[in-house]
Every structure is written in C-alpha cells, then in structure tokens.
C-alpha cells in the first residue's frame, strides 16, 4: 500500500532511504534547509556533497518548505544529526499543530543529545507528545548509505514498543536487497546504535597506529561488552546486543572506510589533531559527542567502561594514545565472564 512519507534530512543516509522508499512505490518528499541542495536534487537528481556519482529517481521531490513536506503525510522519517533533532522536532510540532495531523514518526539517526544524554526517541516524544505522534519507530542496524544505494544486501531493525508500528515500517522498507526485522527493545537498539560509534573511533585509532586484526577483534569484543553493560543498566535486553543493532552495527562501523567514526579514529591514530579531523570530514562525527555521553553515564551508573574512558581521554583531555593503550593492557587481570563460578 502506497504511503506518503516525509523524509527530514538530505544527507547520505536520509537521501538514500528516500530513494529506497520511492523504489518501493511510496510517495516521498525530502526536506532540506539548504536551497542549493534542494535545487540540485530536483533539477539534476544528484546530491554530490553526500553521495557523489549517485543518480536519484526523478520521482524524488526535495523541498525547503517543511509544511509542504508534512502536508497529508502518513509518516515522518527523521534523519538529521542528533544535535538538531530537538530543534527540528519543535518545528515539526508547530506545523503538525497547524495541519492538525498525527502521523507515525520513524527515526534513523544514531546518537544521544548533548547535555541531557537522552535517546532520540525520547527527544522526539518529549517534543511531539502523543498528540502529534501516533507511534515512534527506530530504524537501525549495520548499513552504509553507499552500499544500500547500490543495492548491496542489507539487514536492519525496526524497533518500537508498538508491534504493529514496527511491522508497518518493516513493510515500507523491505525489498529484495533490504530486509527489515522487528524488535520491541527500543532502549537496546538505540543504545547499541549510539555507543558503537565510540568503539569505531577506537578501531580507527588502532588502524592508524598500525595494529592488526587481533587488536581490532579484542577492541570490538570488549567494547561490545561495555556497551551492553551500559544498555542493560537502563533496561535493555542483553540479546539485543547480539543482534543487528548491536554486534552487527558494531562490526560494520569498526571495519569500514565508509564509517566517519572509523575514519576519524584512523586519522587520530596517524597523529592528526582532532580539530583538523573534524574540519576535513565535512560531516557530523556522532561518536565524538557520544563518547562524552557514554563517559558521563558510566560515571553516573558506576559502570566500568575502560575502553570508553580511554577514548574519552584522547578526545577531550588530549591524552597520549599510546599511553592510554598501555594503561588498558596493564589493568588487573580478571575473568572474561562476569559472575564466573570459582
């Protein structure tokens, strides 16, 4: 069944998901606040800054008018940077109040709000409330826009506390190259999605320093243990971290040159200053802000997260990378399994 969907955010992932929805037969309007980007998408059907060389369907409409994008929409897909999610949600609320609409909301961003450390679904619900939002679904998992755009096989998760809403999103996006699984553990899915970016910076650092696969495997495995401990403290299921939005997303983000977080770490490992890395990237590196959030939350919850702490120290305290690695390797020996019987 054809749905009218507004996609907010015309970066690489937002524009690619818009393209998927059009291929699946839906009516899609892509919102951007950049006039030149909207013009390029409408006239040339390209988005060279974010997806160089990719050609979009002529059916894709881009607009800088939020009301135009939201009018009569069945669903809104947020794919904007975490730091502007609340601002965009406030703008959406004003338009929905004017239009007297209450659509489903989906989000496909990965991060935590600076300062409050709130998950994206929490931000959206706080701003839109049940009055302007019929349900919230999180779309997350191991996925790079560049690979989905060329129809590589990709599996991701639609998570919602409302099973029917997750199933509706599953139907919207599923096709012969993109398969969607449902999950009701919103906390676990969003936690895994956010914190794996921190571990990916660490994986990039190891590569930049010249370490091999053994070190990478160790970092990913013990990093996942840290992410799971933190997520479980907030009510997430441990099984979620063994799934697509947990270990799956961690693998792809820690091993791919498409990952901005991995590339950030790789350059840091080669000795490039963080300010230069951020400037050269030209796109949001979510793991930098998330590292601080993870560090703060681990302190609040008294959860041991030594890898996260080391990455935080490198990013925020200008700690020497090799000294941080040395500290990790000389920690007191312990059992791998928590609660192991003696």
Structure description:
The chain folds into two domains: 4-184, NAD(P)-binding Rossmann-like Domain (Rossmann fold); 194-329, N-(1-d-carboxylethyl)-l-norvaline Dehydrogenase, domain 2 (Orthogonal Bundle), CATH 1.10.1040.10. Helix content is 52%, strand content 11%. It contains 15 helices and eight strands. It has helices at residues 12-23, 35-43, 66-70, 85-99, 120-128, 145-149, 163-173, 186-209, 213-233, 244-255, 260-269, 274-281, 286-301, 306-316, 321-329; strands at 4-8, 27-31, 61-63, 75-78, 104-107, 135-140, 154-159, 178-183. β5 (104-107), α5 and β6 form a beta-alpha-beta unit. α8 runs antiparallel to α9, α8 runs parallel beside α11 (260-269) and α14 packs antiparallel against α15.
Task: Give structural attributes.
Rossmann fold, 2 domains, eight-stranded mixed sheet
Helix and strand topology:
Elements: E1 4-8, H1 12-23, E2 27-31, H2 35-43, E3 61-63, H3 66-70, E4 75-78, H4 85-99, E5 104-107, H5 120-128, E6 135-140, H6 145-149, E7 154-159, H7 163-173, E8 178-183, H8 186-209, H9 213-233, H10 244-255, H11 260-269, H12 274-281, H13 286-301, H14 306-316, H15 321-329
Parallel strand pairs: 1-2, 1-4, 2-3, 4-5, 5-6, 7-8
Antiparallel strand pairs: 6-7
Helix pairs in contact: 4-5, 8-9, 8-10, 8-11, 8-13, 9-10, 11-12, 13-14, 14-15
